[in-house]
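dumping this here before i forget
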Amino acid sequence: MTPRGLVEEDFGRIGEFLHRAVTITLRIQKNHGKLLDFNKGLENNKDIEELKVDAEKFSSSFGMYGCKLPEMSYPT
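structure:
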């Protein structure tokens, strides 16, 4: 991730995303159980959707190694 320009504080933010994901999934497991019932808890889950939006917003602020933003094309 460092080639994408992330610095130490950004890795802390990634840790926060992972913590949110674990917390959400533990809550779903507690309320819905495991396996197939767990999958039902993922459907239309507001917390999962918010995490997805936040993570995509964060990650889109960093370039992809070997590509130019905003075109996302390989350099010539």
